[in-house]
Design a protein that fits this description.
The protein has 101 residues and is mainly alpha-helical. It has 4 helices and no strands. Helix 1 packs antiparallel against helix 4. This is Transposase.
């Protein structure tokens, strides 16, 4: 995993109130970050589909805090890239954030 993505994952895990929720978040993110085309909960090697479903639908965790953390991390990453670029044309930047439910 890239260093900047790993930092974000650790930040998001710290927002979870219990170890159980941290484990479920990690299982869910692993499905997405592996990019094997199988992001559904039944493909998780560490958590059951029902555990991931409970995490997403029942367990209380702050969506607002997660959105703020992701937004802050994205902004810092963009600023770091732009400030470290060489003189001349700035790099092309495309950001896609999917917040559909």
């Amino acid at each position: 995993m890239l260093a900047h993505a790993q930092e974000l994952v650790y930040t998001l895990k710290e927002l979870m109130p219990t170890q159980y929720q941290k484990d479920n978040l990690e299982a869910m993110l692993t499905l997405f970050l592996e990019a094997q085309g199988h992001p559904l909960p039944e493909h998780s090697q560490t958590k059951s589909p029902s555990a991931i479903s409970r995490f997403l639908n029942i367990n209380p965790w702050s969506t607002r805090k997660m959105i703020r953390a992701i937004r802050h991390h994205a902004l810092l990453t963009v600023l770091k890239i732009l400030s470290s670029s060489t003189p001349g044309r700035k790099p092309f930047l495309q950001v896609i954030i999917d917040l559909t439910t």
